User: What shape does this take?
Amino acid sequence: MTAPLTFIPSPEQGVWYLGSFPLRAYALFIIVGIVVAVWLGERRWVARGGNKGFIGDVALWAVPFGIVGGRLYHVISDNQIYFGEGGAGFVAALRIWDGGLGIWGAVLGGALGAWIAVRRKGIPLPPVGDAIAPGVILAQAIGRLGNYFNQELFGAPTEVPWGLEIDVVNRPLGYEEFATFHPTFLYEALWSIGVFLVLIWADKRFNMGHGRVFALYVLLYCTGRLWVEMLRIDTANHIFGLRLNVWTSILVGLGALVYILVSLRLRPGRESPEVLRGEGNPTQGAGTDSGSDDAASGPQPGEPNARKSSGPEPRPATGRSSGTPGS
Assistant: This one.
């Protein structure tokens, strides 16, 4: 089947060489996405009252954990690609630059790394998630452009004007005769940009806190991923006739919705800046003074002791009275 008159052409290459060093488009867009997410998360964290540089410190833990988690999810959920009959093998499972990061594993792994980082600082995790959520979904949109250069994650054959031309070598078995396919990676990227805008608006409009911005990100992303996943034709495991990631989108999305509803009832409002700086108890609201430690510690070295005994001072034993009333 020939390509329609209008279509999106696939790039001729996805790797460029600087001497002997390969510069891969897939890795490049992931790196750019990470930088944007950290930069935006840092700005949002400081605007909410947190200390400057904290999100960068969290990223040192969250990013490696997220990459490992994303790769593990991909390899486990699509294990037949590597370990099934005629699979690519264990070494191929480690070649992350060839593509293959599962967003669910990346979010879970990144959350674990972030939890380790914030625990070391005595800061709760939910406000960190609220600060970084818009940056994370924007990073996902940027990262999806790497799928374009890898000619992967496209959908069913189509003749729409924005159909994506795929080289024959990259077409799935049984689809060799089709020239253009739904650019599902592009659909997801555009949906993610829309989610980013909604998160920014909702956070300002409703003064969201206690992890609800992050939960809204998860809910909206799952909603979009659900219909995008239905269009994809790449190899995937199925449960009761549906792709694994369809079930994941449904269950994770419902979990995010429940979290939002329960959290709104139990913990309305937003954390105080003191909590974000590790100076207050997460259960305390803004303006709460927890200064009892100073009172319990007593006078400090070099400070006058303002506390005196409530009883009269003992008089010298002179053997006679003072003789002057009121002295």
About this structure: The longest strand covers residues 15-18. Strands lie at 15-18, 21-24, 164-165, 180-181, 238-239, 242-243. The longest helix spans residues 125-150.
